[in-house]
Specification:
By secondary structure, the chain is of the alpha+beta class. Helices cover 28% and strands 32% of the residues. The chain is elongated, with a radius of gyration of 20 Å.
């Protein structure tokens, strides 16, 4: 999961580095500071603009937990955080199994909005309109769903493609 955070204030990154020596910050290479947490296991980019990007969380709840833990750490470093952080999920990536092997060549012919070039990439790229996600389908029956904004969108997309593939007889047990 990737979530964006707005603190609506500037952050003194040099002060964060002085207080938390474990963070990674090299402004010549990248303008953001990397703040890693062990629990929940996340990496958060913090920018001096007060914007943050949380990556690696397994759920929205974990992303929110990471944000509030970092805000508490910043407060302990005497960095005043005035308001509540504004947190928005930007992207969810999930994987699943369809329960059998998938005939990608037939799927490429039967489905709309797909791209399948096995010389370039071993999976079929299926751009779903509703919900607006991209599914990567593999012959093994595994899939990756990317671009979802909610967990509900992930489940809806996977259920929908599974139903379609079963109706078309494209999954072999």
């Amino acid at each position: 999961m990737v979530a964006s955070v707005t603190l609506n204030q500037r952050i003194d990154l040099k002060k964060v580095v002085r207080y938390f020596p474990n963070v990674e910050y090299d402004p010549k290479q990248f303008p953001g500071l990397i703040y890693r947490l062990e629990k929940p296991k996340t990496a958060t980019l913090i920018f001096n603009s007060g914007k943050m990007v949380v990556t690696g969380s397994k759920s929205k709840k974990e992303a929110i937990e990471a944000v509030y833990k970092i805000v508490e750490h910043l407060k302990k470093a005497d960095i005043e955080i005035a308001g509540e952080p504004i947190i928005r999920v930007q992207n969810i990536v999930a994987s699943a199994s369809l329960g059998g092997e998938l005939n990608l060549e037939e799927a490429a012919i039967s489905l709309q909005d797909v791209m399948y070039e096995p010389e370039q990439f071993p999976g079929l790229i299926y751009r779903m309109k509703n919900p607006k996600v991209v599914l990567l389908l593999f012959g093994s029956g595994r899939l990756v769903c990317a671009g979802a904004k909610s967990e509900e969108d992930v489940y809806t997309a996977i259920d929908s493609v599974l139903q379609t593939l079963l109706e078309l007889g494209l999954i072999k047990n």
